[in-house]
Amino acid sequence: MTRGVLLEFRKMHRLRTLPLLIVLVVAVAALSSASLFSRGAHATLNDSSARPWAALLLSYTMIAAMTSPILTAVLASRQTDIEHSGAGWTLSATAGHSPSRLCWAKLAALALLLLPATGVQSLLVLGAGTLAGITVRVDPAPWALYTALLYLVNVAFCALYIWLAARVENQLISVGVGMLGAFLAVFALLIPSELSRLIPWGYYAVISHAGQNGGEVTYVSPPYGWILGFFVLVGSAFTLATRHLDRAER
Amino acid sequence: MNNVIATMDLTKRFKEHTVVDGLDLLVPQGTVYGFLGPNGSGKSTTMKMLLGLTRPTKGEIELFGRPLTPVSRAEILPSIGSMIEEPPGYGHLTGAENMRIVGDMLGLVDRQIERALATVRLTEHKDKLVRNYSLGMKQRLGIAMALARDPSLLVLDEPTNGLDPAGIEEIRTLLIELAGQGITVMVSSHLLDEIDKMASVLGILANGRMIFQGTRERLFNQSIPDLIIETSAPDVALGHVEGATVVPEGIRLSGIERDAAAHLVKRLATADVPIYGVRRAQQSLEDVFMDLTGRGGLL
């Protein structure tokens, strides 16, 4: 598996994966913290009752929900499309690497890239908050938990898009599903959590650690059981679906 | 002679459609085996089954004397270089980077990669992006990828597809050289002319069935060349024989055996048809091939 992951990193060369990731991470951080630099925001930055960090986390959650499905779809699609255009499925199969192994290697490679990217993204948002002048002490737990869950949801969707990109040669489908997912993820922030849990992309909203309660922004505790169930479901579905790819005759 | 590939009753069906039908393939060691057949005759499917890329519906495959099973496949694959359907190669990477990926995949050393690139004469183009390669260069890179593992068997599906005559000649020379080094080469094509010039053993497939397998000489012996009777009165001659066609030299007849030819000449002579010469037409492999496959959609 390690060899497979290293091969995926070799294949990433000139795919502009890293620049794409950097641009989007910076863009998400900038968009999430843009409201901090507005004139009206200054008054709340030092007011602990206004919970400026929770408000920033909520803003971050919304921007991440809007952009992450597209980012993961683009990364997965680019990494998988090369196997179609370069006859890589057959090349790998004749070297004894099945399509499922290839998909898992792609997922592992992208997951390794997304790990620092998601961490840095959250740190940039926190940094922007500090730079904007929030003096209230930050509660690290919701931020850390949200960042971890955002990373895992990104990896879960990466798995979905890799499978889709492997299954359907036309990459517009995979990226199109990602865009539709972005819409659904934002929409899920506006509907009750009970409904969001039933929409796959709704988990970008379900993992939110900040919410509005009677007009006030507060930290909230997401339904961890549902989130865990979602990860188990995605993991099982990816395992089964990629095994099915092994049986498909190309 | 040992057979590197042997299949017994190899069959592949897709739903109701039988693509490969009861194939008994024998590829002797150290030969260039020309696998001929029209487009859609089942060549690629057969090759995919030999490589374990497609599961047979029925039948058995033996490679290097060992039955092909999921377990044995992993052990046998490192000895088989292949290029199926289209040459592999990631377009956004250079030839050398592609080769390094193959090297890492198979645990090869740099020397093997450099030798494979040199064999297909790609060394000086190895740092170009593959998407900027000509079709011939892509084919050569595909062959280099197949060769890098120092295979005992090369399975190449239409390696000259889309190449210009110079490219075809280059690949042909290369394959003959490889066979000279002891590598068994199985090469498919629907271009009869090129197979004629490189294969020592032929297998001809039509509608998924093997209609001939053996040496080129045996193939020619199986087919009766057309009979050409040189005469200045072809119209008169046509009145005495059936199924003849008029050609500039006289008349031409197909499927006439030795005794029948003697009777025919006697009959024409008795009818005062002036006969200046009787000869058999020069046969190309294509004529034989057409003859065997019933002129069914061949190039």
Q: What would you give as the CATH superfamily of the largest domain in chain B? A: P-loop containing nucleotide triphosphate hydrolases
What is the N-to-C succession of helices and strands of chain A?
Answer: HHHHHHHHHHEEH
* Assembly form of the protein: heterodimer
Identify the CATH class of the largest domain in chain B.
Answer: Alpha Beta
Q: Largest sheet of chain B, described in full?
A: 6 strands, mixed
Organism (chain B): Sinomonas humi
Protein name (chain B): ABC transporter ATP-binding protein
Family (chain B): Belongs to the ABC transporter superfamily.
Keywords (chain B): ATP-binding, Nucleotide-binding, Transport
Please describe what this structure looks like.
Chain A is mainly alpha-helical and 250 residues long. Chain A has one domain (2-247). Chain A is 74% helix and 3% strand. Chain A has helices spanning 2-11, 17-33, 42-45, 52-85, 88-94, 99-132, 140-167, 171-190, 193-196, 203-206, 224-247; strands at residues 210-213, 216-219. Chain A is elongated. The two termini of chain A are 23 Å apart. The relative contact order of chain A is 0.15. Helix content of chain B is 36%, strand content 27%. Chain B has helices spanning 43-50, 70-76, 95-106, 110-119, 135-147, 165-180, 192-198, 216-222, 234-238, 258-270, 285-293; strands at 3-14, 17-23, 26-28, 32-36, 58-63, 66-67, 80-83, 153-157, 184-189, 201-206, 209-215, 227-231, 245-247, 250-253, 275-280. In chain B, the strands form 3 sheets. Chain B has a 6-stranded mixed beta sheet, sandwiched between helices. Chain B is elongated. The model of chain B has no long low-confidence stretch (mean pLDDT 88). The A-B interface holds A 3, 6-7, 10-11, 13-15, 82, 85-88, 90-97, 249-250 and B 51-55, 73-74, 77-78, 80, 82, 84-93, 97, 100-102, 104-106, 130, 145.
Offer a few descriptive terms.
heterodimer; A: about 250 residues; mainly alpha; 2 strands; B: about 300 residues; alpha/beta; Alpha-Beta Plaits; six-stranded mixed β-sheet; five-stranded antiparallel β-sheet; about 35% helix; about 25% strand
